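Class, study these two lines:
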Amino acid sequence: MTTPMELLEFDYTNPIKCIYHRPIGKKYVVPHWHEAIEICYVAKGHPGTMYIEDEEYQLNQGDIYVINSRLIHSFDTVINDGSRIITILINYDWLRHSLPKTVRKKNFELIKAPKKDSQMTAFHELTALINNINDFQCHDTSEDNHLHQLAMSVELISVLVKNFAVDKQVTSDIPEVISQIIAEFHADYQNDIQLSDMAKEYSYSYAYFSKFFKKYLGLSPKKYLTFLRIQKAAELIEKTDDKFTMIVAETGFPDEKSFYSAFKDRYHQTPLEYRKHIQNLTQTTVAP
């Protein structure tokens, strides 16, 4: 497999990263993969749909999904006050150095809920740890608090390894070439990608290239690239005050018209309306 498509940065003193997704409304994440082990915990409601490889899962409150390293996955969700997701990312390098035998021989098996009654106690422990880690990351940055977070992180990994590790048998049903194409999209989406030229690079006709890609990911390479650019644009709108002309240039759209059309088709609001929504959400969050 090629170099990991999504490079995740971790605090070198803590093996996990916790993300409590803000209630921003529509949240679509294109198919992607990374080395980190990902835990998706549905904290509230029914946020939408998750895809792991070629399997589709409806997300419901209380579900926990462990996504093993390098499996392609995506999300089509709506995150609001009634539907929230907590993501835990476990540093694969930390696992490789701390638990080399486990990494070589085991994968984790947990989709929605335990398969065995004997795992229920551990499942409830895992749920409590995820909630506690999420709560404590918002507290002060004192060394005592940091030590407590670190202890909970290691305990969470311990619960996973002791109760949900199975002999390594999880393999990707996605051909290697699909992973390579995805990596290329993520590396070059800012640029003018000619899909017909990309098809030739892989010795495919464009018609076969499109059909082959859609067979495994459920959408054409053209639509995937558009969705990826929209996702990146939405992230820039959330995190920066960049003008839309700059965002268009930074995300590879040929012009503002195509950007506005694609964004509204995906998010059911204009980029300006989306920005105002994010600004209002931020003001509400920080208000005393």
